[in-house]
Task: inverse folding
């Protein structure tokens, strides 16, 4: 019984820390200037323009739509190639692309 209660407490604490970590990563909590990586957090970008101090992409769209990568795993970065689907299956994550389209007049 004690083991069961202890397991439930640990599971709840872990779930809370994951939610807090996601909030920090998505900007829902402290401002970026105050953000401090948690123990065990690693880089998100492991392969795109690693020599650059910041990866920023500008693009213009005049018609149609573009699908942009948000998982940092696309072989066609900054455009999405669907690699996030394999990542989601392997990790249980729910990351998807950013889809930008032009409003039809």
Result:
């Amino acid at each position: 019984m004690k083991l069961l209660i202890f397991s439930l407490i640990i599971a709840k604490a872990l779930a809370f820390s994951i939610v807090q970590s996601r909030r920090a990563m998505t900007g829902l909590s402290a401002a970026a200037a105050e953000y401090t990586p948690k123990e065990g957090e690693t880089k998100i970008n492991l392969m795109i323009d690693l020599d650059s101090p910041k990866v920023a992409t500008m693009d213009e769209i005049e018609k149609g739509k573009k699908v942009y990568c948000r998982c940092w795993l696309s072989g066609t970065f900054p455009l999405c190639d669907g690699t996030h689907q394999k990542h989601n299956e392997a990790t249980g994550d729910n990351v998807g692309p950013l889809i930008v389209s032009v409003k039809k007049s």
Observations:
- The mean pLDDT is 78.
- The first strand starts at residue 65 and ends at 68.
